[in-house]
Design brief:
With 474 residues, this protein is mostly helical. Helices cover 70% and strands 0% of the residues. It has 22 helices and no strands. α5 packs across α8 and α11 packs across α22. The two termini are 32 Å apart.
Length: 474
């Protein structure tokens, strides 16, 4: 379980001293690749605190949970995610109670997406410049402090919204750093892929559980009382990461550390997006995700158009997440690493075709089936995770994954906005069906680009030349 976000226009034209094009992969890394559309997945032993016994190792998701450090990361992710969901709901209610404005209440949700691009681009260098554990703990503590200030009755509405923006700006740095740290905890092979899969499943499940839990809390607590829960979850997450994971050195080399943080962040974005292979893979994360949000963004007007009840609206909002969770669990547990790699491009290309059912303005059962299938199409991301981590050099991995996260959230927000705009001029069912058509056409073109950049089909010189052209064009 996403419009390109190129390096900002103010990226320095002269690269910093160490900002050469994306370094060539080492022979050891290259040995794990095949000439197909993606690299051969490899099952790496977990270098965590207590890796499984080689004599009788557990397999699949059990092998991931056998790593003590990952269990701490997983628990921290679960706690902080539930806290964020509860705080979003509680803060929305609080803002509405204080202002009586539906616009400001809705803006509270929107501000959870808008700052991602800014934070992920301008502060991405943090992920590689400082030790991962320190970054993760500090991010959790900063978020806890921001939420704690929200609890002060004297905090004005403008202050609440500003604090919401700050928490959202911190989020991509935290997520990107955690994604990069997983390669240290689980290795760069199959355990990493399954670990990322588990974190995505938790994120999807939060959509089904978190808002329900938040609603229950708001029946017994005031909005500020419910927000207090978020402070506790952030503090618990920080404690789990501090005492449950190892302290590892920063990824950036000594030479990189001399530049300013902003310079490192922007040069990292330029290098990542300047590599043809990495750029194509990143777009394959982003492009389908931009269009798949259309039926969710338009669920309320579609339910009204077909005369569905409020309960049916809830089903429309949950169907895609259910399909995603089920497909991800199946692919992660039933398919081998090689087969997960083989399905990436076909599933990505066909994943949004179920949305074409909306062209006939389906009733509730058929619409739910189409949404579940579209959600299941996101299972291609499991194999894509492996391709991406293999394509990005270790010293750029934190910045690359922070940028990936920021872009993913940004394009989803943009996709929702565009779907809503289109629905002002066209019937909702046509907008959703059109999203499926446009997404499929664009993804097919992107699939051809990913194939063209596969190891063995594009020389290292070609990849470096592409990066050079990108730098000079800026």
């Amino acid at each position: 379980m996403e419009t390109d976000s190129p390096a900002p226009a103010d990226t320095p034209r002269t690269p910093p001293a160490q900002a050469a094009p994306v370094p060539a992969r080492s022979p050891e890394r290259a040995a794990h690749r095949d000439p197909g559309p993606g690299p051969t997945l490899r099952e790496a032993a977990a270098p965590g605190l207590d890796a499984p016994d080689p004599g009788a190792p557990p397999r699949g998701y059990r092998a991931v949970f056998a790593v003590t450090e990952f269990r701490a990361v997983f628990a921290a992710h679960l706690l902080s995610l539930l806290g964020v969901v509860v705080s979003e709901l509680a803060l929305t209610v609080l803002v509405y109670n204080l202002t009586g404005s539906p616009l400001l209440s809705a803006l509270t949700f929107a501000l959870g997406l808008l700052p991602y691009l800014i934070g992920g681009t301008l502060f991405a260098g943090v992920a590689d410049r400082y030790p991962a554990r320190r970054v993760l703990v500090v991010c959790d503590l900063l978020c806890a402090a921001c939420v704690a200030v929200m609890l002060v009755p004297a905090t004005p509405v403008a202050g609440l919204l500003a604090l919401r923006c700050l928490v959202a700006a911190i989020a991509p740095v935290f997520t990107g750093t955690r994604m990069a740290a997983l390669t240290d905890i689980l290795g760069e092979g199959d355990l990493y892929v399954l670990g990322r899969s588990l974190l995505r499943i938790v994120s999807q499940s939060a959509m089904l559980i978190g808002f329900g839990a938040g609603g229950v809390l708001l029946t017994v607590l005031s909005p500020r009382g419910a927000i207090t829960v978020t402070v506790v979850t952030f503090l618990c997450s920080a404690a789990l990461l501090r005492f449950g994971t190892r302290d590892r050195p920063a990824r950036a080399g000594a030479g990189e550390g001399g530049g300013t943080l902003l310079k490192e962040s922007l040069s990292g974005a330029r290098l990542v997006l300047g590599d043809r292979r990495v750029r194509a893979l990143m777009l394959l994360f982003w492009l389908p995700a931009m269009f798949v949000v259309a039926p969710e963004a338009l669920a309320a007007p579609y339910a009204d158009a077909i005369g569905a009840s409020p309960a049916a609206l809830g089903l429309l909002l949950c169907a895609m997440a259910v399909g995603h969770i089920g497909a991800e669990l199946f692919v992660g547990s039933a398919l081998s690493p090689r087969n997960r790699s083989r399905i990436v491009l076909p599933v990505a290309a066909a994943g949004l075709l179920p949305l074409l059912v909306y062209a006939v303005r389906p009733g509730l059962p058929l619409a739910l089936a189409a949404l579940a299938l579209a959600g299941a199409g996101a299972a291609y991301v499991i194999g894509l995770d492996q391709w991406f981590v293999d394509a990005v050099p270790q010293e750029l991995r934190g910045r690359a994954m922070t940028l990936l996260t920021a872009g993913l959230m940004t394009v989803q927000g943009l996709g929702m906005a565009l779907a809503g705009l289109a629905a002002e001029f066209f019937p909702v069912h046509q907008v959703v069906a059109g999203s499926g058509i446009i997404a499929t056409v664009c993804t097919l073109l992107l699939v051809a680009e990913v194939r063209g950049t596969a190891p063995g089909r594009m020389s290292d010189t070609e990849g470096r030349d592409g990066a050079d052209r990108h730098v000079t064009s800026r």
